[in-house]
Amino acid sequence: MLDGFAQHPEQYVGLTTKPGYLVLKNSSASNAKAQRSPGAQKIAPAKIDWSGAKNEKWQFDAITGPGSFTYKTKPKINKRQGSISEGINRVKKNPQLYEGVHFQTEMKNWPVDQQSYDLILRSGSGYRFLAGQSPNFTFIQAKYFALTPYDEIRMTPDDYTDSMSYKGHKCGKPLHPGRGQGLCDVPHIQLIGDVHPEDIAQGHVGDCWLLCAMSALSEFHGAVQKLLQRTPYFKSLPANKPQTYTVTLYDLESWHPVDIEVDERLCTLPDSSGILGCFPCLHGELWPCYVEKAVAIHCGGWDQIEGGQPTHAWRLLTGCRYQYTFTNSGQGFECFGTFNPNTNEWDSMSNSPHGTKGVWPMKWPEVGGGGELGLKCQQDEMFQKMCAWDAASYMMALGTRSGSNSSSVNGIIDGHAYTLITCLNNVAGSGHDLVKLRNPWGEGECTSSMWTDDGCGWEQFPEVKEVCDPVKANDGVFWLSSDEMFKYFPTIYLCAMNMSEFVQ
């Protein structure tokens, strides 16, 4: 740790009274520090705002099927005894409260005292009743048409959507958001709003590496807008007419920006049971869906983005070569990247993460103190470097131990990548070092920490709570101590670009 101070004293004020810790000079403010997006500081759990809904845009459709349905998160279902007709009327009078009413078709003709039905509450669950030839069950769905219905528009398809496949099977019939197909049918639908890291919720594709990188990028004001700046009038989209969106990415063979044009349709699972990629968020913002779709196309298809690393995603999104991976082999963190020290050249790259070669030992980034090849950093020094990178508006992510993402330790998923949103050293003088993380699933948090949403640490240290301002919501955002972070996450990813440069 003292080596960093001796070699780069201009970056530090001096030593703290905490053994081995350095105080970063201007770590809380810098003329070059990138501005955070308006939605970066979330102050309340997300929810759908129906206040702008227009009565004439509601429609109530009867769908029949065997009674099967899918969902993203467990739906809230209110089971009722009594008149099914009254249940239908309840939905029609309060469509902003209910997805619809589900009942056994023949039961509607039974005596009222023998009838029952299920009211499906609007909870952002992604509830989707599956139509079928069997008419045993009926679902009266309250549909909101924010835009012109999908069957009333004529669009020119892009070159990709209709031919895309997933795991060897052709994707199902694509869906149009906001046009009455059960996908983002909300009054406040928009391509880009305030931009929240919570706009991202992973779908069925194993691309947490990409989504956690997108979540990190969305922290910075103007970064997402830059990806879509070649889309005409993007701030006022979507509109009633069919849309085409242009997403600017980087070709990693030439390191030049390229424009990927996609139409408004989003791919579905091969059996058409639901959306394949990430879900539109409760705020109604669509940008994550189209950025993900463009990356899939750019990399060669959905299968090509199954598995990868956040550093590869940041190359595609920003064109920055200076990507670092830090791993702890048990003797300290070591620095790796794609600069070959034997040839003094960067390795050639492909757009697909599957075509990426291995990594080489690299010199440590100058910000944070630097370090030569082979330098091993212990946890205290590593955390101080991370605080310096955070202060420099670099993006970071963390990787858990290898394994199946169906396994977890205290809520932390194996084989998974998380966005690192904030590093805080000695919060409010309490002696506690904390990090704020986000799961790209949009849910699922650490379950065993004094810094969980309702953990005891916030009440024991009110000064820490005032600084961190934790929000109690199952949104995938949570806090950990630095010790807990190092316990659960043996790998740290860094994009060494000041994001104020990217958004210029």
Automatic annotation (TrEMBL):
BP terms from Gene Ontology: proteolysis
GO terms assigned for molecular function: calcium-dependent cysteine-type endopeptidase activity
Keyword Manganese: no
Domain Calpain catalytic residue range list: 179-498
Entry annotation: catalytic residues: C208, H416, N439
UniProt keywords, alphabetically: Hydrolase, Protease, Thiol protease
Xref: Gene3D superfamilies: Cysteine proteinases
Annotated family: Belongs to the peptidase C2 family.
UniProt protein name: Calpain-5 (New calpain 3) (NCL-3)
